[in-house]
Each structure stands twice: as C-alpha cells, then as structure tokens.
Amino acid sequence: MGKTTPHGPQLVAILVEQLDGAIELIRDNGTEFRSTFRVR
Questions:
Q1: pTM of the entire structure?
Q2: Closest CA to 13 of 34, 32, 28
Q3: How many Å apart are CA 2 and CA 29, to the nearest integer?
Q4: What is the DSSP letter of 20?
C-alpha cells in the first residue's frame, strides 16, 4: 500500500478561502489553527 496524504486540512483551507476568511497557525504551547470570518 502506498503512502496517503490527508486532504482534510487542504479542504478546510479551500472552504475558508471561498468564504473570504483567513486561517492562522499558532504554535505556542501546542498547535492551534484559527479560522476567522467577517460577519456581513
């Protein structure tokens, strides 16, 4: 069996981009991904 790559993070990034949001990676006492969106 070949090595597979998880597509979850890539799909989340695409969705956030489509919704005109932003993703922030924070590596401070662990790893945190923060997504922000504007409220219209």
A1: 0.64
A2: 34
A3: 33
A4: T
